């Protein structure tokens, strides 16, 4: 999807996602970047993943579907999905 | 967000400078504003640095569960840490609660917990009733309920044999009824079956010491059954909580952890102005402070109700306020809207001293540590002052608007108790009696001494041209201490005063604080040997000081001198005049007639006298309005 490419909005979401991840996984923010993922962060296991999901939902006021929860495979992908969802929430388009 | 960033930077700075107490207080602020999953990580990492520098109660908590609880644990630990409890937490294997309890070598027992939480879902323990209740016959339903009762009972018994830990068991939540509205029409429905299982659970817990029920179903209902769950978290992660339910779940656990670790308060010290009532007593006067059944007084009254509930739970109450003590005591004693009265309080510090100093004195007077005190004050400046001066005092973070006061207090975990003894309920009364005695011994603060200390002078005079307007105004304005609530115009008052068998008096009260002006009115009518009190009223400003006794004593004496045998008067109840409700019965009057809730009271002047209170100097001006008018013309 085109939204997966970082956009101007994404740039504002990304630092917030990074800060959250640093808190949840308890690693310094300096030790992480957009590419950080369960493969690069030792404490990012399935249970911490759930805490991460919860923290994202609280921070951005969004809710993830089961499929989306599985897509949150890196900081960058997470920021992109959050951005997409917050945009959805902000638009007044009905379905 | 940026405010929180600043707060974090401040905390980091304080930690770097080893200013542990301040860092700890700010961490509590952060958690109160941002009690969420992400902040939990931050609180925990800060606490690693604080540990050992601050006193904290420790405890070991083990969770036995049939659901994913892990994301709740950092939140629970953070909530506990900012409340002065440092818990070690173990989460048992998924859905193996029975094995953990039954196997003597299980991780549960080797962890050696102080508190065990058994969190099992209805869908796991009663699957047939949760899922396919509609397919079941009555006998099968009963069988399922019996099975759960037996197995739980056996588990609890085994646990109690092997461990001294406290056991907290979640009760069973109800689903959306599978029968629709039909559910509520009978007694054999799905919800009724689950209610039965919950009743059984309560019975089992009562049979063992240290085993308690957590009303999980009630918690879910309180937050909204539809909002509590998040289907996607359940289906993918087996976590039956929506994101917004995590903190309420943790708060509920904390309500058990506090009493089980002894991190509780024994005393609630309350402020008065804008906390127990709306408004500032010293500025607005007793008649204008707000507390009672109507908005906005109702907000303060519901806070008073919440405080009274704590009192009934055995929590001692104390007043810690900046007011004029005499005035505040009169308001507490006499304001008709107040639920709390002086006898509910075990200690008073009503003065203009620093509140931290007052709290220390209260603790000393009650023979308790200052860490047993919770402090309730609407003023954030006072709260912050007490927090920084006495970090061990539990300062209750009241919201800005009185609307949230009662709820905030009710949710405060420091007052939770898991058992209630008769002594708990007697506690305050014992303290109270002791205080009364010691006060009498010291000769300060008995009611009589209080009356004496007021140095009151009461001046009763027939109404004059000059006082007509004020007298009429008082009949129009006075609601509370008013036996008949008859409203009169100046013309009507003048007409009464001009008739030979009527008398109208004004009552003026002076005390050591100054002249209160005309604050009372008496209107009487002679009819043969009966003197009837048409109006007797007193402004709120001076009620509760026995001025009314002086007024009745005056009426008894005067009417006797004028040839009356009976002094009588109606009490006509209104919504507001309960403060005057006892005046006749407490002065030897007898009820002689009643109609529609109204009562006619009578005093036989040949048999009874009403002694004047010895602490009031009474001045009576003789004469009458008519005589004065005649002289003038």
Give the oligomer, counting copies of the same chain as homo and different chains as hetero. heterodimer
Largest interface: A-B, 24 and 23 residues
Distance between the termini of chain B: 81 Å
The Rg value of chain B, from CA coordinates, equals 32 Å
Q: What is the distance, rounded to the nearest whole angstrom, between the alpha carbons of the first and last residues of chain A? A: 20 Å
Largest sheet of chain B at a glance? 9 strands, mixed
What is the ordering of alpha helices and beta strands of chain A?
A: HHHH
Which secondary-structure class do the elements of chain B indicate?
alpha/beta
Question: Could you describe the 3D structure shown?
Answer:
The complex is a heterodimer of chains A (95) and B (633). Chain A is 58% helix and 0% strand. Chain A is mainly alpha-helical. In chain A, helix 1 crosses helix 2 and helix 1 crosses helix 4. The radius of gyration of chain A is 13 Å and the shape is globular. Chain A starts with 7 loop residues before the first helix and ends in a 5-residue tail after the last helix. Chain B folds into four domains: 51 residues; 206 residues, SGNH hydrolase (Rossmann fold), CATH 3.40.50; 176 residues, 3-Layer(aba) Sandwich (Rossmann fold), CATH 3.40.50.1000; 181 residues, Aminopeptidase (3-Layer(aba) Sandwich). Chain B contains 26 helices and 19 strands. At the A-B interface, helix 1, helix 2 and helix 3 of A face helix 3 and helix 13 of B.
């Amino acid at each position: 999807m085109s939204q997966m490419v970082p956009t101007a909005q994404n740039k504002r979401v990304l630092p917030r996602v990074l800060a959250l991840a640093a808190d949840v996984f308890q690693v310094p923010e300096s030790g992480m970047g957009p590419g950080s993922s369960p493969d690069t962060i030792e404490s990012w296991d399935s249970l911490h993943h759930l805490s991460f999901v919860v923290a994202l939902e609280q921070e951005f006021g969004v809710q993830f579907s089961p499929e989306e929860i599985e897509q949150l495979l890196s900081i960058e992908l997470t920021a992109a999905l959050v951005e997409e969802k917050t945009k959805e929430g902000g638009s007044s388009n009905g379905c | 967000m940026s405010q929180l960033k600043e707060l974090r930077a401040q905390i980091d700075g304080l930690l770097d400078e080893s200013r542990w107490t301040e860092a700890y207080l700010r961490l509590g602020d952060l958690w109160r504003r941002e009690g969420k999953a992400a902040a939990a990580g931050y609180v925990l990492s800060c606490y690693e640095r604080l540990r050992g520098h601050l006193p904290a109660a420790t405890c070991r908590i083990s969770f036995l569960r049939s659901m994913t609880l892990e994301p709740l644990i950092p939140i629970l630990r953070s909530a506990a840490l900012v409340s002065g409890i440092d818990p070690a937490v173990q989460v048992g294997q998924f859905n193996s609660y029975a094995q953990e309890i039954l196997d003597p070598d299980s991780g549960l027992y080797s962890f050696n917990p102080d508190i065990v939480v058994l969190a099992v879902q209805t869908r796991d323990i009663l699957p047939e009733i949760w899922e396919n209740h509609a397919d079941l016959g009555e006998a099968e339903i009963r069988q399922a309920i019996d099975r759960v009762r037996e197995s739980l009972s056996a588990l609890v018994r085994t646990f109690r044999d092997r461990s001294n830990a406290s056991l907290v068991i979640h009760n069973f939540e109800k689903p959306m009824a599978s029968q629709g509205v039909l559910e509520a029409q009978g007694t054999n429905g799905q919800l009724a079956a689950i209610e039965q299982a919950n009743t059984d659970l309560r019975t089992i817990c009562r049979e063992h010491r240290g085993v308690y029920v957590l009303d999980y179903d009630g918690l879910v209902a309180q937050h909204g059954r539809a909002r509590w769950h998040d289907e996607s978290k359940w289906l993918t992660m087996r976590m039956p909580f929506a994101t917004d339910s995590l903190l309420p779940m943790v708060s509920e656990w904390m309500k058990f952890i506090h009493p089980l670790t002894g991190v509780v308060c024994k005393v609630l010290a309350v402020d008065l102005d804008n906390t127990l009532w709306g408004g500032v007593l010293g500025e607005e006067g007793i008649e204008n402070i707000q507390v009672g059944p109507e908005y906005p007084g109702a907000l303060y009254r519901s806070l008073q109700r919440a405080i009274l509930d704590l009192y009934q739970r055995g929590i001692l109450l104390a007043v810690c306020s900046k007011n004029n003590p005499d005035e505040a005591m009169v308001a507490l004693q006499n304001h008709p809207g107040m639920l709390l009265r002086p006898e509910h309080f075990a200690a008073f510090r009503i003065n203009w001293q620093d509140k931290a100093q007052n709290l220390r004195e209260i603790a000393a007077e009650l023979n308790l540590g200052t860490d047993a005190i919770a402090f309730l004050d609407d003023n954030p400046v006072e709260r912050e002052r007490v927090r920084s001066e006495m970090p061990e005092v539990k300062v209750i973070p009241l919201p800005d608007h009185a609307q949230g006061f009662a709820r905030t207090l009710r949710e405060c975990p420091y007052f939770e108790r898991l058992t209630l003894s008769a002594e708990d309920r007697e506690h305050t009364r014992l303290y109270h009696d002791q205080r009364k005695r010691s006060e009498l011994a010291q000769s300060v603060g008995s009611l009589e001494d209080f009356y004496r200390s007021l140095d009151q002078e009461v001046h009763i005079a027939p109404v004059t041209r000059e006082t007509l307007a004020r007298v009429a105004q008082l009949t129009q304005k006075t609601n509370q201490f008013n036996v008949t609530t008859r409203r009169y115009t100046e013309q009507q008052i003048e007409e009464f005063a001009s008739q030979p068998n009527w008398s109208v008096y004004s009552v003026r009260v002076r005390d050591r604080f100054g002249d209160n002006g005309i604050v009372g009115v008496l209107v009487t009518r002679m009819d043969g040997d009966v003197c009837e009190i048409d109006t007797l009223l007193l402004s709120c400003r001076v009620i509760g000081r026995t001025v009314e006794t002086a007024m009745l004593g005056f009426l008894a004496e005067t009417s006797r001198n004028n040839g009356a045998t009976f002094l009588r008067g109606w009490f006509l109840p209104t919504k507001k005049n309960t403060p005057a409700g006892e005046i006749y019965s407490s002065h030897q009057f007898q009820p002689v007639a009643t109609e529609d809730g109204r009562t006619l009271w009578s005093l036989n002047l040949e048999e009874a006298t009403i002694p004047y209170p010895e602490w009031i100097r009474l001045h009576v001006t003789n004469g009458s309005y008519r005589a004065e008018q005649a002289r003038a013309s």
